[in-house]
Amino acid sequence: QSRLFPLSRIKPSQPRALNFLSTLGAMLALNETVRTIVVFRPQLLIAGKSDEIIAKFEENYLEVKAHKQVYLTREDAENFCHFYPAAQRAAAVEAWTKGLSKVLVLEHLDGDIIERAQTFIATLAETYGGDSIYCSTSRWESMRDFEFFFPHLDGTTVERTLALIKPDGNAVESDDGSSLEQHVENALAAAGLLIVGKKAAKLGEQEAALLCEELKDSEDYKDAYTNLRSEPGVIAMCVEGPGAIVKWRLLCGPTDPALCKERAPTTLRAVWGEHNAKNAVHASLDMASAEKELKALFPQGALQLQNTLCIVKPHAMSNMLQIRMAIEEAGFRVLKEKHTVLSEGRAKAFYSGSKKEPFFNALVQEASAGKCAMLVLCRLEAVAVLQQLVGPEAVKDAKAFRPNSLRARFGLDGQKNAVHGSADAKRAGWEVRFFFPELGTDPVPNNEEVRDFLFRKSAKESMDLKSLSASDTAADFTMDPTLQQMVSNGLLALCQERPKGLQAVHWLQNWLDQNNPNATAPLSELNRHGFNPDERTKRFVEHGVTQDGMAFSVEAPAPGKAKKIIDVDVDQDLCEKPLSQFATPPFVVFAIGATEAAKEHCAKLAEELKLVYIDAVGLLQEEVNAKTRLGAEAQQAIQKGELVPDEVTLQILKKAMLKHADKNRFLLGGFPKSVQQAKKFEQDIAAVAFVMALGEERTADVAEVVAYYSPIGKVRSVSMAGAAPELVYESMKAYFKCRFMYLMGPPGMPVPKVAHNLEEKYGYHSIDVMALLKAFAESDQKDADAVEQALAKGKPVDASLACPLVLSEVYRGQAMGVSNFVICDFPQSLKQVEFLQHMVPCTSKPLLLDFTRVDSEDIAALGFTGGDAIMRTDAYFLDEMQAMIHGLPGLAKIPLSLSVIEGREKSRGPSTLEGLEAQLVGAVWERVRDKVKPGVVLALGMPHSGTDVLAPLLAKMMSNTYSVDCNKLLDKEMDRKTEEGLTLSNMLAKGQVPPLAITLELIKDVVNLTSSDSVVIENCPLYTDQIESIATEFRIEKVCYIEGDEQAMSSWKSKFLAKTPEDGAQVKAWGDRKKRLSDIVTHFSRLGKLDRLTVSETPKEETLTALLNQATMPQFILVTGLSTVLTPNLAELLAASLNVGAPPTLPATETPGEATAKLKKHAESCGYPFVVLDRAVNSPEAATEFLSSFGTPQLIVNVNAAADFVEEEFKAAHEDMDEEVVAATLEKERTAYEATVQAFKESCASALMTIELSKVKANVTEEPVKAAEEMCAMVKAKLVPKAYVVVAPSGDVDFGSLVASSVCTTATAAGGAKPAKFTVVDCAELFQAGKHSAVLEDALHKASFTADAPDCLSSDLWTKLFSEAFASAANPMGPFLIINFPSASALSSGPSIRDQFGIIESLAILGGILHVRTTDEVFAKCCSGRPADLEQHKLFEAAVQGQIWKQYDKSKICDCLLESVSEGPKGAVKAAAALLEFMLKAE
Predict the structure, then answer these.
(1) What is the 3-state secondary structure (H, E, C) of 1120-1157?
(2) 1422, exposed or middle or buried, with CB in 10 Å at 0-12, 13-18, 19+?
(3) Is 420 among the catalytic positions?
(4) Angle of CA points 465, 468, 472, to nearest 5°
(5) If you write DSSP's letter for every residue of 98-165 in order, what string do you get?
(6) Residue 295 DSSP symbol
(7) What residue ranges in 561-638 does DSSP mark as E strands?
(8) What is the C-alpha to C-alpha distance for residues 768 and 779, in angstroms, rounded to an integer?
């Protein structure tokens, strides 16, 4: 059914900057008038005739309303020509794919454009060829062609239309046994339409006449009318969706089935219709017809407003945003939403109806596997519509028949079908009440429910329990007065009597007592006021809620024999979290090891940071002194010399905390005294954010608590030994600082929605400043008018008005335990920043969504955030505002372009305003996420290898970073019985494997606790497929691997097996762990991110420190020279261009040893691949010390200036210095400088680069900055990476990839030298979309229209792709291993072999080429056993070999022939050894 009408998106040949509003507006305008489509074949454009023909159209008053050039791919052409006879189709497709075609939209004032265009084009046939111009031949074809070339229906408004299957279509089946009804439903779903109502009916006279109205004056009218009223009747459907009227007409085809078979052979009428009167289906012509026809067949009340339940299952929670967006786009309103983990018992109760099904246990297991979301949805016919939206239960059926359904998009298999939807209205009522008992079944009860309610309310003793018919009236029943009616009558009587004062109360009391309808006394007084219910006898009243959710009460005779009560055993959770008495989880910090001085600091912190400080010891004493019950229990324990029971201590703490629940932020001093006490606190009261360990001297209890929480990243240490009190206080305060992210963008950009994603994914608290200001402006506050005027003019709101609003939101977030805030569209002035940061201790990071002004105006015009965005755009781009934004300290810009977003987001969503907004937000979010996601450092190693020492050591080397042992993290979550821990316990009890997502969320919490930017983790990942999940949520900065030699591995294995040495499962577990770790190590080795720490025993901290310093030491670039202006300018520019931080400052008075020690410390902590030094090595002794400590630097830049220039520059800087002193000083400096340069020349001449200042083109005296920029460019040209190319055979096995992996993971090369860290660049992946910058993704997208293969790209695009690969690598200087190179396109339409190697040499130093050759036998064993693959390899091999031996000297080529290899990995090891030996000789 996918070709019922083609909806392929044809792209213009020259994409322009995105202007959603004008494009959408134009499409809608064109849809309102009669038009036709004309297309020029490529031959006319190649001949340059298109403009000439267009001029002729306009001369004949055929107005061209729109036009564009398109390239039809073969698939597009096949779709476009699908109705051509088979004999002509192939030739037509070839003609349409020869180049660009031109599409015109024509109109005429008289509205008969289709006939006029056909007539005129016929006159052009002799001049330009009969088949060179295509024209739509009917109104239906013009609609089809318009949607094909200008797809817009998905972006139009939501409409309803009538889809009707006529009796002739309803009576037959297709050859495969399927009915037309099934085909129609599938076709509607494929077109994105929903069936809101459906019924089978026999049409009356008026209804049949209405549907035949378009045939009224036709000879087919009588037959069509008779057909509509014949057996077996019709199936009518109310269809809803964007462009529903036109979409359904396109699916049906022209009204004449004979014409359909010729021009639209895949439409419904072509397949199922007979002739005009019996054409199978009916479609409304336009909006007016649709409205009349729907009213006739679905009168008011036929479609019911309903509630239904949708459950997003645990495995699909990662797609929650997309699922919710799809639900809302389908017209649902989410009334209630709840995220929870179902216990197994609860899941069994919910699915009890399927208890006898064989899949019941699997269904329950999946439902309780993790967190899921329950949504109560509301709309017309919600149950049926949701069923269509979710699709068939079986995922394979959903993908086959409803590919756009939620289950097809997000389902996996079996019971993992993404979502659950209520099956019918009755079930929906039960399911909604199951999770949301406070809600009724439906928003409005239907007539049947009302009659049923009346019946139940009026039921009498011995009355037959009959069903009420529609003819029953309210007169048949006697209704009891409601309480409201009774009280109303009582108040009316009270007003008539008018008693005074308290007498009124007594009077009403007596009246209610006397007129109680359940009383047995006569109600004589009631008659006077018209309140006259039946006299009642003593009866037993049954009441409750029906299965459909309707309340009822039935009067019955007094009960006889007591009913038997049956207890039902319902499975309970394996673990249950006690309910908290706090409205929101409190933020709690333990302060342990506190001295008297530290207590003062804690009290001060509480006052300054709006915390509640509770001294546990003092609180306990207060309770004892107050002689409360808890105090008495504590006093008893103290008198006996025992510890106060934990239960008492916790109750006292909880009582004190609840008194301050409004603040909800607590600093608990002197607590806990033990790990057990801490765990009980977390189980009974609240989770702890972190433990602040004060001082170095710790008691055994404190040390135990610190040891418990340290491996899970929850300990923050404060050093107090010898530190000044103010420094200790600042250290403590730093842990409570908030992190503010100021998210700014042009007016109209839906910044709050991007911020919402940050809230969902990374735990930020979003503050929408514009929403706060608008709400304030609409209030009756004193300064509301001033704020309103500022907003209207796009001017900054005064800080004294805006910031208190933001502060209140910050305090609210802090009370919920949040430390990270994303503040939208803030700041608007520097005063606002100063105000906020003065009030709240924080770190801040401004983030700018950097659109051009043109793009910003397009965004504002769309009106995502209201109509005032256009006016505010002008103010946003004023020089003053731009200067303020770009002057914010630490501003990070995210360059964005609508044209690039348009290229990437094509076909990702509907073209409605909501769809466009979602596409824009999605594209921006991808860029923001890459910028803000936290960093992670991985500590890898086998069990007992010392990763527990390595991880904390790595954390210590980084600022505000903590280590987490992922195994202990999960264990201690379960041990402390946190919410996540209970989820894990329940999953493990059921034999389920906890998903990695839980671990990652817990790690994010550790990062967010004290606003860290990075975290170090061990025991994760455990599988290579987990790496992608980690990389999605975190930025993997570094990977350190403790590699043991044979002796070490044996020792670690012995310790691993010590508990169960004879257990074969443990031996297998060790082997599996070793294999998995090897795969992970290989993965990161290929990325150049792995630092290998080789040991022969379990290392201690000192050993690991030395190995880390050696492995992570950055490369140095030394800038030296006598110029005190140009040399530092060059160093700063160079550091900035390499993005490695400013050059470190070293005092000139330090000895070489002292300077080297400081350099080491800086290099170890900087985290950059390079360090640029400005005149830091200024004596031969310092040069010798530097070389012995760090080895040969990457580059030494010697800025050689003439003596007179140096002298003038020095004198200008030292005007008061005596000339003799100047001369002596300069002489001393020159002597030391020349000796230093000579020392480097003798030791590492290849690394020395001398720049003669006399040869710099810029005027070094008048333009020092320009001269420094010129020299920086010269240095950058020298700093090019080194690359090696691996030319190897390929087939079923990628042999080149095996060689690269072997090179990257080989510990030592020939001669014992340790090779550098390689980065693998795989050309098979390089040309694939989805892994590049937005600009390159756009370029690849455009190139894909004409490329025969992914690598058939221009040389310019090749160059850009390799440049990006080199620049984005862990070490941009390489060395790189380039595999699957040269690519196959070298022998077809891509760059030639010579050109491909030339591209590499233009970007890098080509260190060598490993040319791997094999015998036929080895190729069969290592690559592929198919003869065809061998022949293809030989052809390519001959071409490559002939070119490289012709193009390069033999010293550049490492030729490796594999003659006797049994399998691929062994051959790869041999080839890798050959390359490493070749590199060693070259060095």
Answers:
(1) EECCCCHHHHHHHHHHHHHCCCCCCCCCCCCCHHHHHH
(2) buried
(3) yes
(4) 130
(5) SSEEEEEEEE-TTS-HHHHHHHHHHHHHHHH-TTSEEE--SHHHHHHHHHHHS--GGGS-EEEEEEEE
(6) H
(7) 587-592, 612-615
(8) 17
Name which of 609, 638, 540, 892 is nearest 745 in CA terms.
892
User: d(Cα 355, Cα 1206) in Å, to the nearest integer?
Assistant: 92
Q: How confident is the model at residue 498 (pLDDT cuts 50, 70, 90)?
A: confident
Kindly indicate the confidence band of residue 263, based on its pLDDT and cuts at 50, 70 and 90.
confident
Tokens of 826: 């803030």
Residue entry with tokens 């940061």: 837
Phi and psi at 751, nearest 5°, equal -55, -40
Q: Which of 440, 140, 111 is nearest to 263 (CA)?
A: 140
Give the closest residue to 791 by CA, choosing from 885, 670, 875, 666.
875
Measured distance CA(493)–CA(216) in Å, rounded: 67
Which residue type is seen at 146?
A: F
What residues form DSSP beta bridges with 238?
162, 197
Q: For the residues of 783-833, what is the DSSP string, one character each?
A: THHHHHHHHHHTPPPPHHHHHHHHHHHHHHHHHTT--EEEEET--SSHHHH
Instruction: For residues 751 and 754, give the distance between their C-alpha atoms in angstroms, rounded to a whole number.
Output: 5
Q: Is 807 exposed, middle or buried (0-12, 13-18, 19+ CB in 10 A)?
A: middle
* pLDDT tens, residue by residue, 230-250: 998 999 999 999 999 999 999
Pairing of strands 371-380, 305-312: antiparallel
SS3 874: helix
Element (H, E) at 309: strand 305-312
Closest CA to 55 of 43, 64, 65: 64
- Tokens 């360990």, residue? 693
When pLDDT is cut at 50, 70 and 90, the band that residue 452 belongs to is low
Residue 896's nearest CA partner among 863, 865, 927 is 927
Helix axis angle for 996-1009 and 1025-1033, nearest 10°, is 30
Three-state SS for 539? coil
Rounded Cα distance between 890 and 885, Å, is: 11
Separation in Å, CA 1179 to CA 845, 1151, 1233, 1234:
41, 10, 6, 9
CA 351 to CA 372: how far, in whole Å? Answer: 15
Kindly state the average pLDDT of the residues 1354-1372: 89
Active-site annotation holder among 108, 315, 420, 601? 420
Tokens of 861: 């015009």
Residue from 929, 778, 766, 765 nearest 866 by CA: 778
Does the pLDDT at position 551 exceed 70? no
Tokens of 961: 């970073």
395 close to 411: Cβ distance less than 8 angstroms? yes
In DSSP notation, 750-787 reads -HHHHHHHHHHHH--EEEEHHHHHHHHHTS--TTHHHH
For the packed helices 1126-1138 and 1264-1278, what is the interaxial angle rounded to 10 degrees? 50
Q: Are 459 and 477 in contact (CB under 8 A)?
A: no
The per-residue pLDDT for 779 is 87
Backbone angles phi, psi at 1094, to 5 degrees: -90, 130
- Angle of CA points 932, 934, 937, to nearest 5°: 150
- Residues 549-567 have a mean pLDDT of 42
Could you tell me how many residues make up the chain?
Answer: 1483
CA dihedral 1301, 1304, 1305, 1310 (to 10 degrees): 120
Q: Are 1289 and 1295 in contact (CB under 8 A)?
A: yes
Task: Check if the beta carbon of residue 834 is closer than 8 Å to that of residue 755.
Answer: no
What is the bridge-based pairing of β-strands 935-940 and 892-895?
Answer: unpaired
Task: Taking residues 1310-1325, report their average pLDDT.
Answer: 71
